[in-house]
Design goal:
Structural class: alpha+beta
Mean pLDDT: 88
Shape: globular
Helix content: 25-40%
Largest sheet: 5 strands, mixed, barrel
Order of helices and strands: HEHHEEEEEHEHHHEHHEEHEEEEHE
Number of helices: 11
Strand content: 25-35%
Length: 355
């Protein structure tokens, strides 16, 4: 994920107010999604700035819902929609298994020891190995919330909605899920790590390399990147300091993702060395701590608790935030909330505490 996407979420980590609904993208959303990609101006770096490419992304979602997508292409695009205006205000994408059609590359932090008993010399060096260790993992990426909706809880809702979606289709997802974090950049928006490493092997700048990846041209990474371990001690100090870190503007996000079950396991992005967070899918907050309950229509009262709520399947999947109160084994929700979810009274909803 890139900085605009994640800074949106860190500012939006507050009590949800139910302004938005998250739903699955359909063919009707091609133009709206394409407009998001253009507006993001590189923030949605996995998506080419092409109407046809963005249509293909949604078609892949439709094939995945229909059960006709291959294991390599199965993925789901979720959209954030303003519940009042109907405007598409953001997105997030879930990929069930990465690296099955083209290799998924990252760097793994490791160590190499150089030792000589004769010279009584021992040196332990931190190094980066180009690897495909995360092949087969599920991935959450392309989180973006447009300017007018930032700071309103939309980013947090997209993250929770993704987990609730996974909870409802758990067999489709891998045992591990990852999120690539945005790395440190300088005042000129250039990554010190890219300037120290990638710049020497590519004839394009970092944004140009990211565009090639968005177009599906990933083989160049293996063809051009160094095959041998990269010794961190040989890099400028400014580049060394960025390895396994994240941009200061999104540092507040780390505890929130850790609370949901994500943690750092020594993998970093190949372009800017931003940390890759990993989680055991079944232990994600929205998977492990959500439950299906029968919803009843009534006003829940002033003592109601705040919930993330999901209902429906396939194209009918919806997530919103709302107050609710348990009465026995049933969750009392207002009729307006049930209408927002497209769920009649007496049906099952999946609930996750937002407290």
């Amino acid at each position: 994920m890139s900085l605009p996407e994640l800074s949106t979420l860190s500012r939006a980590a507050r009590r949800p107010d139910g302004r938005f609904v998250v739903r699955v993208a359909t063919a009707r959303d091609v133009d709206a999604f394409h407009a998001l990609v253009i507006e993001a101006d590189g923030a949605l770096e996995r998506h080419a700035e092409s109407l046809d490419a963005n249509r293909t992304t949604i078609e892949r979602t439709e094939r995945s819902l229909a059960g006709t997508a291959s294991d390599a292409e199965r993925s789901y695009l979720l959209l954030l929609e303003d519940a009042v205006s109907g405007e598409v205000a953001g997105c997030v994408q879930l990929v069930c298994s990465i690296g099955l059609d083209q290799p998924f590359y990252d760097y793994r932090l490791g160590k190499i020891v150089h030792s000589s008993s004769r010279l009584k010399s021992y040196r332990c060096h931190d190094v980066l190995y180009l690897c495909n260790d995360l092949t087969g993992c599920s991935e959450l990426h392309s989180l973006y919330v447009r300017g007018g909706a930032r700071g309103q809880g939309g980013g947090a809702q997209l993250i929770k909605a993704a987990q609730l979606f996974v909870a409802g289709r758990l067999p489709e997802f891998a045992p591990r899920t990852i999120i690539e974090m945005h790395g440190v950049r300088g005042p000129d928006d250039a990554s010190p790590f890219w300037e120290a490493v990638g710049r020497h092997f590519f004839k394009v700048d970092q944004r140009g390399a990211e565009r090639l990846v968005a177009q599906g041209r990933k083989a160049f990474i293996a063809e051009l990147m160094p095959k041998h371990p990269v010794y961190l001690s040989l890099l400028p100090e400014s580049a060394q300091a960025t390895v396994g870190s994240m941009h200061p503007d999104i540092a507040a996000l780390a505890p929130l993702l850790e609370k949901d079950g994500f943690h750092f396991e020594n993998h970093v992005d190949i372009f800017d060395a931003g940390m890759v967070l990993e989680a055991h899918t079944r232990t994600l907050n929205g998977v492990a701590n959500s439950c299906e309950v029968v919803a009843e229509a009534a006003e829940p009262g002033e003592d109601a608790q705040s919930w993330w709520l999901a209902a429906g399947e396939g194209e009918g999947f919806r997530v919103t935030a709302a107050p609710g109160r348990f009465a026995g084994d049933r969750l009392i929700l207002s009729p307006d909330v049930l209408r927002r979810l497209g769920a009649p009274a007496g049906t099952l909803v999946r609930a996750l505490s937002a407290a």
